[in-house]
Amino acid sequence: MSTTTRTLSVEQVQQAFDNSTFIAWLGMRVTSLDHDAQTIEVDIPFQNAFERGAGTRQWHGGPLAAVIDTVGDFAVGMLVGRGLPTVNFRVDYLRPAIDTDLRAIARVRRLGKSIGVADVDLVNAQGALVAIGRASYATLPPA
């Protein structure tokens, strides 16, 4: 990592979450961040607004995807000092998330001059993998 790169702390990432109306609505809380390991962990509490169907307590795929994209973004972004535009994004849903809070664990796979790539595991309260995602983010300085 370049000495000129400004990294983000747990508090700064949380502040970025809280300063976005949409991300704040998701209720995400940064629980750990490791610049050397290039990982970040975020807890997401279940809300009835996330239900796939009323009364099911099953997470809809949309909020799951939003969480994965956001946490992947800040895994890379914490290393370059800002949130980043998403270039490409995919999610594989592995099992339903029902009546559970979630944890997102993101790991940077590549931090390049123009593109960064992160993988995100989304696990339920029992630690079972419910979804995985991979995204690429633009790391070029803002114009």
From TrEMBL:
The keyword Disulfide bond does not apply. Residues 59-130 form the Thioesterase domain. InterPro entries: ACOT13, HotDog_dom_sf, PAAI_dom, Thioestr_dom. It comes from the Bacteria. Signal peptide: none annotated. NCBIfam families: unchar_dom_1. This is Thioesterase. One of its GO terms (molecular function) is fatty acyl-CoA hydrolase activity. Belongs to the thioesterase PaaI family.
